[in-house]
Amino acid sequence: MSEHLIRKLERFVQLSDDERTALQAVGSGRVRSFGPREDVIQEGAPPSCTRLLVSGYACRYRTLPDGRRQIVSLFVPGDFCDPHVFVLQEMDHSIATLSGARIAEVSKDEVIGLTERFPRITRAFWWDSLVTEAILREWIVSVGRRSARERVAHQFCALYVRQRAVGLTDEGECDMPLTQAELAEALGITTVHANRTLQRLRAEGLISLKSNRLVFPDFEALARTALFSTAYLHLGREGEAFDAPRRLTVPVEV
Amino acid sequence: MSEHLIRKLERFVQLSDDERTALQAVGSGRVRSFGPREDVIQEGAPPSCTRLLVSGYACRYRTLPDGRRQIVSLFVPGDFCDPHVFVLQEMDHSIATLSGARIAEVSKDEVIGLTERFPRITRAFWWDSLVTEAILREWIVSVGRRSARERVAHQFCALYVRQRAVGLTDEGECDMPLTQAELAEALGITTVHANRTLQRLRAEGLISLKSNRLVFPDFEALARTALFSTAYLHLGREGEAFDAPRRLTVPVEV
DNA sequence: CGATCGCTTGAGCAAAATCAAACCTCGTGG
DNA sequence: CCACGAGGTTTGATTTTGCTCAAGCGATCG
Q1: pTM score, two decimals?
Q2: Beta B69-75 vs B58-63: how paired, if at all?
Q3: I need a labelling partner for B42 at 20 to 30 A (CA). Which of A106, A116, A124, A170 fits?
Q4: CA distance linking residue A119 with residue A123, whole number of Å
Q5: How confident is the model over A151-174, as a mean pLDDT?
């Protein structure tokens, strides 16, 4: 069930059949289904387990005492919400779905077992968490230094490339699971301003967006106006040197 | 030499003497000295090793192609710059000193050896990296949703609490190693605006700041205006259940 | 058919950016 | 000892970006 996770990790290292099988198992334990815009776990709650987004879209957010809300991460299928949270006593942020979603609950022991048995998976998890941090940093750069127009463009570029990395895009288009209000909460602007900014990007022919589907008539142009570079996503098979040997016989697809 | 690191990790779990000794060793290998405002490693370079800030202050930053710069992390003594970077081929951000600083270079093998021999240290490193991520998220919240005044206040509160956690504060005062221009680059505002905001906080009696020394006449009041909470720093001995047994004889201080 | 949710529009306003210049302080070298 | 200069800080005037408030529009769903 965690085919997206496997696909993502293999953007870093080639896994062995055993490793793939073990990862499959992880994503097929307790899988819970959620409707759109439901809280998965709230700030202050004890983090009972690690979560893996199997399908659909979700986000992490923080709410200030006076109600201001900031979305600080987006999850696409294959994303792990904090592989190691279980060392903490309580969540310092909330996780909510955006669309309907299926989320696998992975116990502490499963995570530890996996990393103890498969050093290559451990290494791939490290890579994944470094990329997660890099995404957070780039988010800060957006909110801190990019104009509203650049921010929207940048978030859309990132969303596309991340979905493509797990095989969820069509040519030049992808899902955009956020409402304009949520997009605004992610980018540190207001709903009204997000709306006007979207209109401008549409008018400029850089994007087209209807019913949660985002189309890029000229991705390169959008990336240029966003000052977007894929470097921070480290999708270039950087763990190649540690690839599992490829099998000569083709394994049967499950 | 890594007494600050040890002190920080012990905000999470009590370590054994062996573990403390092993950590001491890590911080006493190749230690390099830097002047203020020097690059330690630049974006694009291969990350040869992990770095531990032994003394002084440093930061992480990203520069956009047109020169806009955003500081995305501050390091205080005892902070690790990316325990696992070595899985990546190239840095996606730069690291620079703010003040003069001493930085220990820790090889991949040392990190791996340490975590293989001492599960408690592994757990403490997980905690540390979760806190590092939480700091990034809170940074996004600041830049995305807090006013300039709240941002400055929040950064100062965080700086104080982080320095206190490693034993570097005096009562109600701490170092503030950033120039106003750097503070602005960290908070996503301009130098001019940072200056006016500082003046306002001073006038309101919330801070006093001269020659890199920050004094808090009323920390609680500042924390309130910043909407600052220490929860995300997880300093409450959350790993207590895994403490090493305390020795009955007092070990000799080194 | 009415209610709700998400999107859109307009007018006025506030926060922060920009530009430009001056000032202060501290270390350096004449 | 003083002049000089560099780096950091401060100030003022002006413009821009994005925010606020308020209302209307248009689907979709019970």
Answers
A1: 0.94
A2: antiparallel
A3: A124
A4: 6
A5: 97
